[in-house]
What does this fold into?
Amino acid sequence: MAFAVNQVWNFCNETQKSAIKWGKRWPGEYDLCELTAGVSKDLGIQSGTVQRICSEYVIRRQAAHKRSLRWRSSRKHLPWIPFKANGISVNREAGSAKYYGLEFSYWNSRPLIGTIKCGSICADSRGRFYLNITCEVPDLPQNSKDLSDVGIDLGLKDVITTSTGKKAASPGFYRRLESKIAAAQRAKKAKQFKNLNAKVKNQRKDFNHKISTDLAVNFKAIFVGDISSSDIAQKSSGLAKSVYDASWYQLKTLLKYKALARGVTYLEVNEAYSTQTCSECGCIPASSPKGRSGLIIREWTCSECGATHDRDINAAKNILRFGHESLIKQSSTKTRKKLALSGIPGL
It folds into this structure.
């Protein structure tokens, strides 16, 4: 079935390349579905699966801003079989499912609740198959309005430092197993190599889930610095392993959707000069840490007001202030737009 999925994907890609070659209009989802109509029986997959592949191809092409995408092959790509809601029959109590005549049982990682919208069957590098289902669930309880706001500074030694003074030290999951992973790779023990990498990935994801849930539950507004893992890894090659091990992007992604689900304000702000600026007086004193040479300075005293700061907590407090200023700017911009639409001159 996964091979058949690759064939449909490659047909969509070939159709796209032909349209580019002959200067024709690029095919959309409806065009690709029309061209692939009736092939499901020959390929041994559902018609809904074929339609999902066509839809996914167009979405990925538009998101990547590319003329065409890469070909899919069984050697380079892991198995992936998408389906629609009516394409699978799930027995939630027994933990079994049926897709196009294929019956299988599964282990419930958590109770399956809500209305099934779509899903997929896929496998990881170790050959373990997973049933992924997207469900429409009721809204989560909204956080209390009495909760406070928080600014978050992301780092390497401490993954997060909040404006309240709380820190979460980096567990360094990859660093702990780096020697074992390297030994398995040198010995060409592919199975052990894949298992160790999967262990690191699962540990890191579990850690980020716990941190993001704790923050989303205990605050009503969350402001995070717009730090980029890829930018820092490229500019400072010596920090690349530590940067990717911290997994800032994954943490921010989890934090964003959990905050939105609970009605919590989530905003990424420009954190430029957040470390150098004094959170008490708002100036950039000569005594503040600057540049790469200032990375070793963890505590400093403001030469203007005399306040003593922890480097990361001070940055988190400034990020909190930047977040409040951004919200004020956004609200004033929306107000001006409403006044302009109503014909009332703004201030």
User: Anything to note?
Assistant: The chain is about 45% helix and 20% strand. The chain has a mean pLDDT of 90. The chain has two domains: 2-136, 140-336. Residues 17 and 68 are 7 Å apart (CA to CA).
